[in-house]
Amino acid sequence: VRVEFIGREFLYAVRVDTSDGFELCPADVCELEDPACMFEAGNDPAQIGKFEILENFEPPFLSAMQQVMRQNDIHIAGFEFIVDKAGKAYVYDINTNTNYNPDAERRAGVSAMERLAVYLEGVYRELPLPDTAKVLQHA
C-alpha cells in the first residue's frame, strides 16, 4: 500500500497488486508494455486495476506518518508499507518526489495533481513579496 500526502494532509491510499511482481511506482511511465519502450506507457490492459485507490482508509498510523513529515520538514510524500499476516504494518520507503496514477484516480474520482496545484498556489501566496520601490530602484 502507498499512502499519499499533500501539505502533510492525507490524500489517499493506493493498493498495489504485486501478484505479477513488486513494482510500486504508480505513475504511467512505470506501466510499461515493453520495458524497452517508455513511450507506450499506460496502454497495457493487464495494468488496469493494478493500482486501486482505497475508500475509507483510516489506519491508526497516519498521524505517525504526519509526525515524521513535520519532524523532517516534508510537505509532500508517499509512504509505502506492507502488512504482515498478523496485521502489523511496516513502512519501508518514503518518497518526497511522489508520482500519481491517473487511471486509478479517474476510477476513484480524485486528482492529486489538482490538489497539488491548489496546495502550491497557497504556498506561493504566503511568500513575502519584495518591496516594489526597492525592486524599481535596482532596475
Describe this structure in words.
- This protein has a single domain (2-137), classed as D-amino Acid Aminotransferase, Chain A, domain 1.
- 27% of the residues lie in helices and 23% in strands.
- It has four helices and five strands, in the order E-E-E-H-E-E-H-H-H.
- The protein has helices at 62-71, 102-108, 112-126, 132-137; strands at 2-6, 9-16, 51-54, 76-83, 89-95.
- A five-stranded antiparallel β-sheet has the order 3-2-1-4-5, with helices on both faces.
- A hairpin with a 5-residue loop joins strand 4 and strand 5 (89-95).
- It is elongated and about 65 Å long.
- It starts with a strand and ends with a helix.
Q: What count of structural domains?
A: 1
Residue fraction in strands? 15-25%
What's the CATH class label?
Answer: Alpha Beta
CATH level 3 topology: D-amino Acid Aminotransferase, Chain A, domain 1
Order of the strands making up the biggest sheet: 3-2-1-4-5
From the alpha carbons, calculate the radius of gyration and give it in angstroms.
19 Å
Largest sheet data: 5 strands, antiparallel
Helix count, DSSP H or I runs of 4 or more residues: 4
Mean pLDDT: 79
The succession of helices and strands, N to C, reads EEEHEEHHH
User: What ranges have pLDDT less than 50 throughout 5 or more consecutive residues?
Assistant: 34-46
CATH architecture: 2-Layer Sandwich
Distance between the termini: 52 Å
Overall 3D form: elongated
Task: Assign a percent range to the helix content.
Answer: 25-40%
Q: Would you tell me the structural class of the helices and strands? A: alpha+beta
Question: How many E strands?
Answer: 5
